[in-house]
Amino acid sequence: MIKKAIAVMTSGGDAPGMNAAARAVVRTALHEGVDVYGIHNGYKGMIADDIQQLNSRSVSDLIQRGGTFLGTARSKEFKTPEGRRKGFENLQKRGIEGLVIIGGDGSLTGGSLMSKEFGIPIVGLPGTIDNDVWGTDYTIGADTAANTIVEAINKLRDTASAHRRIMIVEVMGHKSGWLAMTTGIAGGAEYVLVPEVKFDLDDMCHELKEAYERGKRYSILVVAEGACDAIGLGAVVEEKTGIDTRVSVLGHIQRGGSPTVEDRMKASMLGEKAALAIISGATNVVFGFDAGKVVSINLFDAVNNQKTLDPELVRLARVLA
Questions:
Q1: What is the pLDDT at residue 3?
Q2: Do 6 and 37 meet the contact criterion of CB atoms below 8 Å apart?
Q3: What percent of the chain has pLDDT over 90?
Q4: Of the candidates 116, 92, 117, 91, which has an alpha carbon nearest to the alpha carbon of residue 38?
Q5: 230-241 helix and 201-213 helix, angle to the nearest 10 degrees
Q6: So what's the pLDDT on residue 299?
Q7: pLDDT tens-digit profile of 151-198?
Q8: Domains in the chain, start-ordered, CATH in brackets?
Q9: Catalytic annotation, residues
Q10: What is the pLDDT of residues 53-62, one digit of tens each?
């Protein structure tokens, strides 16, 4: 059944390109003659009834902006059946018949629960800089974050070389090492430490010390935050090698900035697909990319499976170190 009104929201950690995706959802819906609402501040805003109808002008001057104009927030209340019912009733009273959710695993899991409990059609778009959503090669924001990290590595290399230091760069990734592995390879790091792969600290320090004895001027180590404590690692590396070691924790700077062309284009493509799907009656799907093509993934499969780190990236990082 063709829908007359849909809503779009962003949830979880913000990611560059979320605005481009939401913009595409809104303008595609309006092009199809469908009313579209924006839910502010994620599930928290849904429960608080912070929902407004959008028009084409609502999403102008957005495609180049990072963050999310809709806002995002965590919501403990939404984790309860009572909270989800309150959110659903706020959608229902406006005649909203379907929901597009732009977010990561946790956000999509929340949508899957609403779908099961109340039957509201849900279409998800993977928006997370960690690139850790199962079933898709790409998540909105990951490319921009990776470029931000590589730019930082390039600058840190200059000062590391000037002082013959070891530079440890901590990047985001509690459970997924995609950001660390990708940027470590692209940034020419000697070592990349990720949650998925064990490492031998003594062997690493021995190799670092030998390299400096042979005349090496600097070393870059990229560490995913879930692999180890970067500050503590820096202290141990300096103690074991005797080499001046510095730690740079990039933190939330990785989330910000104007999205890259890839994030703008792919987020726009996913946003259009999501809007057309939800309008036409599709539900419980996530749209992502596989080998450069837009694909649909079962929502419940996406949230109940864990994406693994490509072993080819791990192999390549070791070969090129």
A1: 85
A2: yes
A3: 98
A4: 91
A5: 50
A6: 93
A7: 999 999 999 999 999 999 999 999 999 999 999 999 999 999 999 999
A8: 5-141+259-304 (3.40.50.450), 143-255 (3.40.50.460)
A9: 130
A10: 999 999 999 9
**Joined tokens for residue 101:** 């959710």
| 46 CA to centre of own chain | 22
Q: What is the mean pLDDT of residues 287-315?
A: 95
Tokens representing 118? 């109340």
